[in-house]
Amino acid sequence: QMTSATKVYYSQTTQTDSRPLIGSGLRRRRVMTKDGRSNVRMEHIADKRFLYLKDLWTTFIDMQWRYKLVLFSATFAGTWFAFGVVWYLVAVVHGDLLEFEPPANHTPCVMQVHTLTGAFLFSLESQTTIGYGFRYISEECPLAIVLLITQLVLTTIMEIFITGTFLAKIARPKKRAETIKFSQNAVVAQHNGKTCLMIRVANMRKSLLIGCQVTGKLLQTHLTKEGESVRLNQVNVDFQVDTSSDSPFLILPLTFYHVVDDA
């Protein structure tokens, strides 16, 4: 059975609790997938969902497109309906509904809003600024004027936030990174008389990359002098290329290598 300490590191692709990401066994799960995604799920963290809500901007940017579209579509429809209910209550308070039998000289707050459906349509027309037809606000009711201003201000802020998250997600360099391809297999061979770990890197786009560097991390279990076992001890793995510059010109596929020695 997995201990609580082991459960903190857990593979997202594991189907049962019997295969921890870090633990005993001949074959262990990958910490990172080959396309660069983390394969670790953090567990036993108090108020984990609250932490995501404290940073809504990053949460919405990291959200998958299908969830983002559903959430924002529901947000728009929800605000239309919510303000539609408020407009309907204004009509009720002001006595604009037909069942109240208003007098002939009665001027309603919003013309031709006698039902909840009509109030919803007026809310939609106001928020989307598509232009009023025979439903429009009158000068009779200051409360309606204040409500209209409040709706436009709040929904404009909401639309700015939603538009910003869409643009920020589209402009992220994540897709550009997917056009940097690494060789599927790493090779250990002799290079300049030394045993080296070699990989090949290629830029798939026409746009050039400046200041290219390749670094690696070796994750291994390490036993300290005090007898403490560090499950994910990280060791830097430096890669270099046969060039006079530390920043190679990645116009062609290049082979980066790391000298395998006692260090």
Automatic annotation (TrEMBL):
Primary location class: membrane
Domain of life of the organism encoding this protein: Eukaryota
Claim: GTP-binding is one of the keywords in the record: no
Potassium channel inwardly rectifying transmembrane domain boundaries: 32-173
One MF annotation (Gene Ontology) recorded for this entry: inward rectifier potassium channel activity
The family this protein is said to belong to: Belongs to the inward rectifier-type potassium channel (TC 1.A.2.1) family.
Protein name, entry field: KCJ10 protein
Gene name tied to this protein: Kcnj10
